[in-house]
Amino acid sequence: MKRIPILLCFFISLQWAVLSFADTVYLKNGDVIEGKILRTDENKTIIKTPSDIFQYNAASIDRIEQKPDLGTVAAEALTDDKKELIKRLLQANGVQSFIRQNIQAALTKVSSESKARLKTILNEEELAAAVIPIYADKFSTDDLNNLITFFESPTGRRFVESNLAVSQELLSAIMNYLKTKITSDTSL
Fold first, then answer.
1. Which residues, in sequence order, are bridge partners of residue 36?
2. How far apart are CA 136 and CA 76, in angstroms?
3. Is 120 exposed, middle or buried (0-12, 13-18, 19+ CB in 10 A)?
4. Distance, CA of 26 to chain centre
5. 14-29: per-residue pLDDT in tens?
6. How many CB atoms lie within 10 A of CB 8?
7. pTM score > 0.85 for this model?
């Protein structure tokens, strides 16, 4: 039962992260739409939001603010040095520990006969290696060095130590808010 709130919190925080890097379309009627601009030309703009895809005529748009695409750093090769930086980051940001804890949790839920087999399937090093390309695609070597500096700092360590508790409290607050709103709205 604990996994559902944690997963929900993850998806909510992921949604916030997506929106924080959103393009913004300001309409002449005062509406503001945030999302990812899929296409824009002299006649129209098409923007994808978390809920739908919208198309606006150019005449109805006051202005558009586009954020730079932070999606990939594909031009930078995945060298052995970069792999080592990512491994160091996985230690510093708590991902390696998260992988280890989840493997241990999975092992406690299976029979002793299945445990040995599951240990060969759930290999911590292999799981960590599987996430290296994700980090390599999203962060340059300079980014990785800056992230490591942060996560190895006292503030970064404090962030890692308190992040789960903060996420759980955020989720609880959101769930309580939604529960109150939904139960008080008789039309739902």
1. 48
2. 8
3. exposed
4. 26
5. 444 444 447 899 999 9
6. 14
7. no
Q: What is the DSSP string of 76-110?
A: S---HHHHHHHHHHHHHTSHHHHHHHHHHHHHHTS
What is the β-pairing status of strands 32-40 and 23-27?
antiparallel
Residue 29 to residue 48: CA distance in whole angstroms: 19
Instruction: Give the span between the Cα atoms of 95 and 101, in whole angstroms.
Output: 10
Three-state SS letters, 19-69: HHCCEEEEECCCCEEEEEEEEECCCEEEEECCCCEEEEEHHHEEEEECCCC
Residues of the chain falling short of pLDDT 70: 1-21, 68-75, 187-188
Task: Give the C-alpha separation, 108 to 76, whole Å.
Answer: 41
In the chain, the amino acid numbered 176 is N
CA 145 from centre of chain: 20
Q: Which residues contact 49 (CB under 8 A, 6 or more apart)?
A: 33, 34, 35
Residue 133 to residue 11: CA distance in whole angstroms: 21
Residue written as tokens 């708590």? 94
DSSP tally for the chain: helices H, then strands E: 7, 5
Which residue segments constitute the domains of the chain, with CATH numbers given? 3-65 (2.30.30.100), 80-184 (no CATH)
